[in-house]
Amino acid sequence: MNENRIFYPQRPILPVAKPSPSGKTSSSTAIPATSFNKILEKELNGVTFSQHAMQRLESRNIRFNQADLEKLNSAVEKAAQKGAKESLVLMNNELALIVSVKNKTVITAMDGSNIKENVFTNIDSAVII
Predict the structure, then answer these.
(1) NCBIfam families from the xrefs (predicted)?
(2) Confidence category of residue 34, pLDDT binned at 50, 70, 90
(3) Beta-bridge partner residues of 126
(4) What's residue 58's pLDDT?
């Protein structure tokens, strides 16, 4: 081999960013900081309730204490570990919750009198606590 040759490292060719009409260059990799904060907050807070579920709980006078919320969070985590997407969570044989496991959101809620003789569809798992 010829040792007198000089080798230059190759640099990748990147596309040139076109200036926007306002004269500023736009960065396609910029992600708003609020999106990360929202995601982090959702992960830390656990299960949320949809507007529909809140209306159902309020109309049926159903209240959750901290222990109930911890049980619900635990049930959703167990369902997520098993790969569930939409789950039926039965609490104390008195309350049925349909939960989007992926979004950690309670979609709807039913109390004991509405659970009986009901068909639950579009679920792929059930957690009984």
Answers:
(1) flg_new
(2) low
(3) 88
(4) 92
Q: Measured between alpha carbons, how far is 19 from 22 in angstroms, rounded to an integer?
A: 8
The residue count of the chain comes to 129
What is the pTM for the complete model shown? 0.65
Quick one: tokens of 125? 């798992």
Match 């830390």 to its residue by tokens: 44
- The model's pLDDT over 65-121, given as tens digits with 9 standing for 90+, comes to 889 999 999 999 999 999 999 999 999 888 999 999 999 999 999 988 888 878 888
Nearest to 72 by CA among 83, 87, 84: 87
DSSP character at residue 117: T
> In whole angstroms, how far apart are CA 72 and each of 19, 24, 49, 69, 97?
50, 48, 11, 5, 9
